Each structure stands twice: as C-alpha cells, then as structure tokens.
Amino acid sequence: MAVKRLSFLFTDVEGSSRLWEAHPAEMESDLATHDEIINREVEAAAGTVVKGTGDGFMAAFGDTGDAVRASIAIQLSLASTHFETINGIPVRIGIHIGEAQPRAGDYYGPAVNRAARLMSIGHGGQILLSQAANEAVLSNLDRPVSVHSLGEHRLKDLTAPEQVFQVTHPDLRAEFPPLNSLDAFANNLPSMVDSFVGRGQELDRIIETIGDARLVTLTGPGGTGKTRLAIEAAARSIDRYPWGAWLVDLAPLSDPAAVPSAIAAAIGIEPQPGRSVVDTSEFDAAWEKGQRLAVATAVGLATI
What is the extent of the structural domain holding 219? Predict the structure, then answer.
C-alpha cells in the first residue's frame, strides 16, 4: 500500500505501573473510563484509533488541527471526570505529522516512532507537538488555544533532536516539570548527524550486559562502528543512570595510568591537591554507588 502522510497522536498514562500497584481495583474501572473518553474524543475529531498501547492509545488524523482538538478534548474530559485513584488518570499526549507505511491495520515508520517518543518525554496533563506538527497547525488554532516552544530536545532512540512545543488552554494545567528527554540527564554524548539503523540485537545485548557487568568491551577491526554502537547504547540506557552518561575519549592516550584522569575530566571530577584522582572522595563515591555511566571510544562501556 502507498505511504500516507498523517498526524499521529499517542497517549499514555504517566506512572501507570505505580498506579496499578497501589490501586489495582480502582485502576481497572478508571482505565475503562479513560479508554471510553479517548475513543470518543478521537472519533468526534474525525480521527481513528489505530490501536491500544498498554495503558495508552495510538490514533491517526488526516488533519493536524483535528489531532490538537482531540487532545484538548481528551484532557478537558479527563480533568472533569471523577476517578477512583487519588490523583485521577494523568495522561500525556504527543502529536507529530509525517509519512508512514500502512500495514495490517497499523502504521510503521519514523513518523510513528517520533510521535511515540515525543509523548514519552511529557507529563500527565501535558500536550506536546513536534516542530512539523506545530507548523501544520499554527494558522489553524481555535481560540483560546495557544502553543509555545519548550526548546530543542533529544529523544531516546532517535538521532535528530526535536523542537518541542506545548499546547495550552485556559482550562488546562499549563506548568509542568522539565521534559524527560535525554537532555534531562547529565551527559556529554554527541548528537549524531545520521540515523542509527540496524544492529538491534547487538544493542539489546550490550544494554542488557551493562546492567550486570561493570565493564563491557566491544572488539573488532577499525571502522566497524564500535564507537557509534557504544554511544547509541549509552543514549538508549541513560535513564538507568541518575548521574548521566559520559563520552570519554581514550584514543589519544598511550599511558594506561592516564585513564582515570581522562574519565574524571569527562565527568567533571576535579583533582584534589596531593591525591590521585582515584583517591578523591567523588570518584570513590561514584565507583561505590555505580551511578555514572562512562563510554570509552573504541573500547566499550563501563559503569563507575
């Protein structure tokens, strides 16, 4: 079938796992109400619910303005509905427009992935637009709806950063914590100019292994993409490490004794007079807690 250009809307209940653990009985009835609201408002705005995504939905629209109208109607309906859980059902929404391949009643492609990733960095009650979606709807906003920029953010698993916009309405919450993008985690990982394609099994294996081992070494001939693979693995697992992900360039070093200083410099640990860097309190604490993730070029990954 031919590729289609559509506006994709993704929803998700923020913290749903925690809510299910704390309020299993209430969540069962509340999610049924949540599902009814989203299906109703999407259809009322000329959209199509493509599928459920756990505690959320994927919907497609021929017009971005309709997607925005549906998102506002969803949030207004959720805000005015009584739920059994203590703080209601906090739904975050992301909208992006682009081309996707229809297949077996679903859609696939980068536009779908970007819409899902955009939604995932938001907070309950928040509506986020990509730059493309914002441009598509800018001249077609219904008053009193407005849009403002939240700046450029890097989205997990995606190479090119995204200019993110928030939809606001007088009857909806407008203030939220910082977005949960890669930029919310301390890091010095470079932005890649090209997309990372393939090698999914290798990435999954690396990410799984660094959860169990303090050091993972990637070996192979020069030019086979070890550094890029390490950086991609760090970016995709950064949310596991509260102190962030760091690129440490070991290529210029010829003395193994210089490695600790290079790592310390990359992660911002200042040497203390009269002490080696590995004996500083910060370095020692980082090693004991295992809260930092260092990425060594052409070598692999280590948690320290």
Answer: 200-303
User: Do 104 and 230 sit in the same domain of this protein?
Assistant: no
Which structure tokens are listed for 116?
């899902």
The pTM (predicted TM-score) of the whole model is: 0.68
Separation CA 23–CA 17 (nearest Å): 10
Query: DSSP assignment of 186-247, as one string?
Result: -B-PPPPSS---S-HHHHHHHHHHHTT-SEEE---STTSSHHHHHHHHHHHHGGG-TT-EEE
> Does residue 195 belong to any structural domain of this protein?
no
Structural domain includes residue 191? no
Residue 118: exposure state from Cβ atoms within 10 A (0-12, 13-18, ≥19): buried
Model pLDDT for residues 56-79, shown as the tens digit of each residue: 999 999 999 999 999 999 999 999
pLDDT in tens, 16-29: 888 888 888 899 99
Residues of the chain with pLDDT below 70 are 1, 156-160, 182-186, 191-199, 239, 242, 268-304
Residue 170 and residue 39 in one domain: yes
